[in-house]
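Handout, page 2. Input:
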Amino acid sequence: MSNMVIDNLFSTPIYKTSLDFKKEKMIGYALKSKQINMGRMLSNSGGWQSNPLIDKIDLFDDILEHVNKFSQQLNIKTIQKFNQIWLNINEYKDFNTPHIHLNALFSGVLYLKTNKDSGKLVFNHGNNHFNHCWDNIDVIKNDNNNSPSYEFIPQDCDLYIFPAWAEHYVEPNLSDEQRISLSFDTVGE
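Output:
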């Protein structure tokens, strides 16, 4: 009799937690930054994305602590530091197209202001050929082995950290309220 083994060779780890911080203060900081910073266009379709932040905010230390916890859980011994940090403000129908973050080890997003209609955070399967080869399969239940993408419904104060190579996007904000978030990339010290 033979033993059957299924090895999951390559995974996309996503770290999720909720932070305790002065949310209203950070939202005020984001709105004020938008007034004085023209911003930039990268993966955002509509909306505003700040240039990299240069201010030091206490919250950054908490985020970096979680990044380094995640890194240790993945058996990566390199201590992380921020490469860049920026703000995002998305109005009605604004979204972020599928993208990865180059020149970084980890990327992440902290949601400052959301609601149930402000758009899901979606990660695409890590294999570029997945949809080509498995585009018409019938599954009993979607799971990590047979799904082309995975969705999270962000809530206020949710922090997501993921490998910078993980392709992701944010669905359109279908709410009349702004979706506000803080994003970042890290590199080894």
